[in-house]
Specification:
The chain is mostly helical. The chain has ten helices and no strands. It has helices at 5-25, 58-68, 79-90, 126-140, 146-179, 187-221, 230-243, 251-275, 282-306, 317-357. The protein is elongated, with a radius of gyration of 50 Å.
Length: 358
């Protein structure tokens, strides 16, 4: 009777549904043990040889249980959590009557306790200390190579010396104008030295600008950060092209132009560091050097402004070119006047000769 097709299908379906329902209701999933290929079907009192049921892995049973049950599987609490709960349950609450008030049951927004917080005294110099710390860290230059740092600072000594000399000579000229004689030098000597120092500072500034521009050529030849071609070479060309024409300007305009050139070149160097064209420490190194040069230029302009009405302005190369041109024009006019005078003299001499012949 059970050897027919419909009987075998009914027995297989009954066994599968019973096994799945029992596995989902259990807390742990254990596959039923199979000791023989014979399965006892409900409603049948003797073992019957049926087709073998396909083996279902554990993952399939877990998926079926997750889709049929109402919630996630039970997770045992961690041992640390249980131990912490036992410790907290043994602690006794300490009474604090002084904190009990009519507002103690209200939870505060900005603090936990109902009592007002004590106002802390603010350090008024905290911002100043922070700024000083930043300045100290900036000028420490720990990452800069010692050789480059020492050589760079040594190269700024002539520039700073000319700036301080300008300030002292300006003070000595003012002292001579007020008291009739200078402190160490006479007014005329101080003015003469001032006219010698001013071109030196302008010329040295042009040399420094040219040198800073040439550094980018060296980085390009060394292929630091890759090869960039004309974009990097342009920085080395623009720097001397801007620096050397300042020698033709008056002292005040020349210093202002060089100050702008130093600032622009520092910006270009900082951008080069960001792009990876220069070492990471180069921007800080250039900031310190540019700060010293800029301060020197400002000091020179301040000292020069104190004696603007007491000394004669030193002629610039442009003024000298103008004087040369005017002198050439005057020489040509004098030569033309003399030639005309000779012509007139010759004409008068010829007329006298004609009168004598007559």
């Amino acid at each position: 009777m059970l050897r027919s097709g419909p009987a075998r299908s009914l027995a297989r379906f009954t066994v599968r549904s019973t096994t799945s329902r029992a596995s989902c209701k259990a807390s742990t999933f254990v596959l039923p043990a199979r000791k023989s290929p014979f399965v006892l079907v409900e409603g049948i009192k003797r073992p019957t040889s049926l087709a073998l049921i396909a083996y279902r892995p554990l993952s399939t049973s877990l998926q079926r249980c997750a889709t049929t049950t109402g919630g996630p599987p039970f997770v045992e609490p961690d041992k640390k959590e249980l131990q912490h709960e036992k410790t907290v349950s043994k602690e006794e609450l300490e009474p604090h009557p002084e904190e009990v008030s009519s507002e103690s049951s209200v939870h505060q927004i900005f603090h936990e306790k109902g009592t007002p917080d004590e106002e802390k005294e603010e350090d008024m110099l905290a911002g100043v200390y922070s700024d000083l710390r930043v300045v100290k860290e900036t000028f420490a230059l720990n990452e800069v190579p010692r050789e480059a740092l020492f050589m760079g600072l040594a190269g700024l000594l002539p520039y700073a010396a000319t700036s301080l000399s300008t300030v002292y000579l300006a003070w000595d000229i003012n002292h001579a104008a007020l008291s009739g004689q200078g402190f160490f030098l006479s007014g005329e000597t101080a003015e003469l030295l001032l006219h010698i120092i001013e071109p030196l500072q302008i010329g040295f500034g042009a040399v420094i600008l040219s040198f800073l521009g040439a550094i980018h050529w060296g980085l390009e030849w060394a292929k630091y950060g890759g090869v960039h071609g004309y974009r990097r070479y342009a920085i080395g060309v623009v720097a001397p092209a801007v620096a050397w024409p300042t020698l033709l300007l008056p002292i005040e305009y020349a210093l202002i132009a060089q100050f702008s050139a130093f600032s622009f070149l520092y910006f270009a160097d900082a951008r080069a560091v960001v792009r990876g064209w220069a070492p990471p420490w180069y921007s800080t190194y250039r900031f310190v050097l540019t700060f010293i040069v800029g301060a020197s230029i400002v000091i020179t302009l301040v000292g020069r402004g104190q004696i603007a009405d007491k000394v004669s302005r030193l002629p610039s190369p442009g003024d000298r070119f103008k004087q040369l041109r005017e002198s050439q024009v005057a020489a040509l006019e004098e030569e033309e006047r003399q030639r005309r005078a000779r012509v007139v003299a010759q004409d008068e001499a010829e007329e006298e000769d004609e009168e004598d012949d007559d």
